[in-house]
Design goal:
Layout lengths: L1 E5 L11 H10 L2 E5 L2 E5 L3 H17 L11 E3 L9 E3 L7 E3 L1 H14 L8 H19 L5 H22 L4 H10 L4 H8 L5 H4 L3 H6 L2 H6 L11
Antiparallel strand pairs: 1-3, 1-4, 2-3, 5-6
Helix pairs in contact: 3-4, 6-7
Length: 229
């Protein structure tokens, strides 16, 4: 269980913010704190509520501070997030990306890979690398590689979709593009006349053959799942 404490540290307070840290260390609690956010980890919900109440009293009486009850809770670690991170369920907890962090990541990638931006694939990859490099620099301690592999697949499909949109002006353009990237003429022709939109088309076999993982790697796309290796 985790007792989550969130409070503010007024500049006028006569006590340093690490007063709470020292008190929790004295009590033998496992915790983490950054600025006015803090997580305290205990073994049960009952213990969590007890610790929440005692910490609230400590902050009020000793530091003259008040917990924001609307942003605080006693809850299972996987149900909460801290600085963009959370924990997996099960006996052996692992650090994972908080759902909101993944959602925000996808929103930004969608902006970069927008099909109507009118920029080259190379420019798009360059912008993506700039964003993903910083994102992974922050989230590199996460221990859920499957999430990264799934995001890599999704990003490549976003890029294929962007290329499909660029070729969408005519069947001939799609055929020339696919055939020019090594797709068999017959398969390229079948795909070229498809009435599917760019997103659906990006998942078709011909587009995957034309732009496999190596296609993007050769153009410098950084893989999240291979970051730091």
């Amino acid at each position: 269980m985790a007792a989550f404490v969130r409070n503010g540290w007024p500049e006028s307070s006569e006590y340093a913010p690490d007063e709470l840290d020292k008190e929790l260390e004295r009590r033998g609690h496992k915790f983490c704190r950054y600025a006015d956010d803090a997580n305290i980890y205990v073994k049960s919900e009952r213990a969590g509520r007890r610790v929440m109440d005692s910490v609230e009293r400590f902050l009020a009486e000793r530091l003259k501070l008040k917990i924001n009850r609307e942003k605080s809770a006693v809850s299972e670690p996987p149900k909460r997030s801290f600085l963009g991170f959370s924990f997996t369920s099960g006996e052996f907890r692992k650090i994972r990306f908080a759902p909101k962090s993944v959602k925000n990541f996808k929103r930004k990638v969608k902006q970069i890979t927008g099909r109507s931006r009118g920029i080259t694939l190379e420019r798009m990859i360059q912008e993506l690398n700039g964003y993903t490099r910083g994102w992974m620099g922050y989230f590199r301690i996460a221990e859920t590689p499957t999430v990264l592999s799934d995001l890599d697949c999704w990003i490549r499909r976003r890029l294929r979709s962007a290329v499909a949109k660029q070729w969408f002006q005519s069947c001939k353009a799609r055929f020339r593009g696919l055939n020019g990237l090594g797709v068999d003429p017959k398969q390229a022709a079948i795909t070229a006349v498809s009435r599917r939109g760019p997103w659906a088309m990006s998942n078709m076999k011909a587009f995957k053959l034309a732009m496999p993982n190596k296609f993007f790697a050769d153009r410098g796309l950084l893989a999240l799942s291979g970051y730091g290796s």
